[in-house]
Amino acid sequence: xxxxxxxxxxxxxxxxxxxxxxxxxxxxxxxxxxxxxxxxxxxxxxxxxxxxxxxxxxxxxxxxxxxxxxxxxxxxxxxxxxxxxxxxxxxxxxxxxxxxxxxxxxxxxxxxxxxxxxxxxxxxxxxxxxxxxxxxxxxxxxxxxxxxxxxxxxxxxxxxxxxxxxxxxxxxxxxxxxxxxxxxxxxxxxxxxxxxxxxxxxxxxxxxxxxxxxxxxxxxxxxxxxxxxxxxxxxxxxxxxxxxxxxxxxxxxxxxxxxxxxxxxxxxxxxxxxxxxxxxxxxxxxxxxxxxxxxxxxxxxxxxxxxxxxxxxxxxxxxxxxxxxxxxxxxxxxxxxxxxxxxxxxxxxxxxxxxxxxxxxxxxxxxxxxxxxxxxxxxxxxxxxxxxxxxxxxxxxxxxxxxxxxxxxxxxxxxxxxxxxx
Length: 422
Hints:
By secondary structure, the protein is α/β, with parallel strands linked by helices. It folds into 3 domains: about 55-215, 2-Layer Sandwich (Beta-Lactamase); about 235-300, no CATH class; about 305-420, Response regulator (Rossmann fold, 3-Layer(aba) Sandwich). It has 14 helices and 13 strands. Helix 12 links the parallel strand 11 and strand 12 (about 380-385).
């Protein structure tokens, strides 16, 4: 009996018992190393996917192709048979499928519009929390009609969250625009919390792509529609802004002026239209304004300087491009404090500011401007995602001259408000 319970020290160095224990030890070490390698491979694959996906897309086909690549990577990394994106449509307050999808037919997609109180999609959207469900049929959060329609065994649903960070990568704002589903883990396996963590990383990238694309696509399509409308008119049309910059010259006008058909947008009028009756006609039409027909700064008077205060790099760049193209001199600031420093240093004609910014938000910046005697009459436009009546009232109380909601952003409307205030 004493031989049976003898310690390792009393065993022969190469006894079968000791060798078996060492073998089990090394086997467990190998399994742990293998698990760690797989985990690192997943993280590397996820990082590679996020690096490959373009963050700014400007057309609907580009958005579809970008999402198709992302969805393919998601299915491979998570080992899911089906992947589906659903976007919140504010006008109907429902979640609708955003193509493309994987493993879901177009006919099935047409039946998947759901309310915010319905199913796991509505639950995740409302609560901003991810869920894993490995028994879809019996999970109380799932819609049994959708489970049956898509033959769902198990799944993960995560919110599509737009996260705004400051220059130090601190989270300053987040907004849910929809949800991402993956269904049916391959080889009849269950989804894990590790799968959910990876999907959340990929969903954040997808949300950024979708949000940026929607804004760019809206602006691009509106511009193209306007250009097409003017191009189809058989009379000559020349659009010149108050600074003497040509915004549009349609083919009929180019033909009348015996000029080659080209894009003359952004050029000073004297560089486009030669001296003569047409040039004099446009000049006389603009005589009541305070700007000359020379390029900004060429006639001794600089264009109005606009300060854009916006912590989102993408939104800041977009607003700067819009205003620069309209002929304004644009200064930018990443938050309210930086904007205030800019105002204290130079002459600014108008401020366009976001509301939700670190340090000093847009309401605080507006109030500070109104309290400074030198700046009290400075026009301020708030451009923000906050759309409630209470937020609008806060903007009015702070002293904003205009309040524009990003979800209904219109380039032309912004420029019209700026022209009116200046």
